[in-house]
Structure formats: structure tokens, C-alpha cells
Design brief:
CATH architecture of the largest domain: 3-Layer(aba) Sandwich
Low-confidence stretches: none
Shape: globular
């Protein structure tokens, strides 16, 4: 049984079909890429898996159990977390506070405890702070823990968003264009960091990425979307030589033999 299964997912926005009958299976401990031209429906697919959109048709299974219809926070509690194509940090809060937000789903303090600032709440808050700082050390940004998130360089904001996602203690992390806007050196560093997440933390990773060098060098399996439909799947080598994929990216003329 696959760790995550998306079966026949369809999402419509009025007359626009953003995803149609998309089926994807993700094995535990793998790095999988979802690729396709702009407008192919990749982020819509991520949004359905993580509860930001509810599929009009189809289902999403985690460990064989449906998570369709659950809120994003409920899905995060079950072990699926994500980052975003456009970084979504609390920019006025410190970097450390941003990571602490990720621990929220695992805290047990109730409303009364928070109102009266009980000893239990204070102790839990301190544990969350220590854990958040350790995660920042792990991703290499502990030196900016007390700086406002919005003031950080772009590359550090990307790592901060990943640290916040890790604070939910996930099984699966979805990375939406993690190398977008990075220079070649930063892209290489991000590639190695993603490998580290798999090998050291045992995470299952699904990524959307337009950098084909990164995709082909990092992914073990690839699913390709075009106009909301899945047109191919396979290993990087199989995808590299797939005529449907070549046509989707380069046009039909690229597949014709003169």
C-alpha cells in the first residue's frame, strides 16, 4: 500500500477544469516530482492533497484512510505539511516565532491555561521554543532566530518556511518550487538539503519544480501534468525521453523527425 494515494482527483473553477482525473501514488521514503508547464495544475493538485481545496471528484488516502474534506490543520496533524510557491511567513514576527507556529498542532494547552498563563503553559511554551531553535540549527539559520522574518534574504526565508513545516513533525512534506528565485549556488545547496531531509529524517518528499536539472538529479519518480491531466509518469530517464513530455514543454515540432 502506498503511503499517499490521490485517486481520480478533479477540480473545477466554474468552466475551468484545473485538474481532471489525476491519480498519483507516493511510496514511503521517496522523493517524487510533479512537473509540467505553467498552468498545468500542479499547485491545484498540492492544494487538494493538503486540504486547501476539496476535490470535486476523487479521493486522497493517507495510509489507506481518506483525508478528503479535512481542513489543512487537520491534515497537518495527520502528517502532511507543505511550503508555498509564494513564501508565506508572518513577516513581522521573528524567525523563531515563525517556527514555533509550526509546533502549535502538537501543543495541548487549553484556553483557560493560556488566559491564566499557568505553569504548564509556560513549560510547554519553553519546550516549543527550544525545539524551534533546534530546527533552525538543523536547517542552518539559527543565527537569524531573533530577526524579523520579513527582513531575511530570500534564500533564508525559504529555509525558514521549511523549518516551520518540519515543526509539525510530518511524514510527508510537499515543497512548491523550493529553488525558485535562487542562484546556481543556492540551488545546489537546496538540492543537497532536500536529500538530507530524506536520508536523515526519513521524510517522504513531493516537490513541484521548474528547474529540470534539479528535478532530474534529485527525483526518484516523476509525474507530469499538462492542462490539468496527467500525461506521463516514470523514472527521470523515462520522462526525459517521453515524447508526450517533450511535446508539452517544447511543442509538437520537437517530436517530429525531419
Amino acid at each position: 500500500m502506498a503511503l499517499l494515494e490521490a485517486n481520480g482527483l478533479t477540480k473545477r473553477f466554474g468552466g475551468l477544469v484545473a485538474n481532471q482525473d489525476v491519480t498519483v501514488k507516493i511510496e514511503q521514503g521517496t522523493i517524487t516530482a510533479v512537473i509540467g508547464p505553467n498552468g498545468a495544475g500542479k499547485t491545484t493538485f498540492f492544494n487538494m492533497v493538503t486540504g486547501f481545496y476539496e476535490p470535486d471528484e476523487g479521493d486522497v488516502l493517507l495510509n489507506g484512510k481518506s483525508i478528503k474534506g479535512l481542513r489543512p490543520d487537520q491534515i497537518a496533524e495527520r502528517g502532511i505539511t507543505r511550503t508555498f510557491q509564494n513564501i508565506r511567513l508572518f513577516k513581522e514576527m521573528t524567525a523563531l516565532e515563525n517556527v514555533m507556529v509550526g509546533t502549535h498542532s502538537r501543543l495541548s494547552a487549553g484556553i483557560l491555561g493560556i488566559m491564566f498563563n499557568t505553569k504548564r503553559v509556560r513549560e510547554e511554551e519553553e519546550r516549543a521554543k527550544v525545539e524551534a531553535y533546534q530546527l533552525m540549527e538543523y536547517v542552518g539559520i539559527a543565527h537569524v532566530a531573533n530577526e524579523a522574518a520579513g527582513s531575511l534574504p530570500y534564500g533564508l526565508q525559504r529555509r525558514l518556511e521549511i523549518a516551520r513545516a518540519l515543526a509539525t513533525n510530518p511524514q510527508i512534506i510537499l515543497l512548491d518550487e523550493p529553488a525558485a528565485g535562487m542562484n546556481p549556488r543556492e540551488t545546489v545547496e537546496m538540492t543537497e538539503f532536500i536529500r538530507k531531509l530524506k536520508h536523515e529524517l526519513g521524510l517522504t518528499i513531493i516537490l513541484i519544480e521548474h528547474d529540470m536539472k534539479l528535478v532530474m538529479g534529485l527525483s526518484e519518480y516523476i509525474h507530469v501534468l499538462d492542462y490539468g491531466r496527467k500525461i506521463a509518469e516514470g523514472t527521470p530517464e523515462q520522462i526525459r525521453n517521453n515524447p508526450n513530455v517533450i511535446e508539452a514543454y517544447l511543442g509538437k515540432s520537437a517530436t517530429e523527425v525531419s
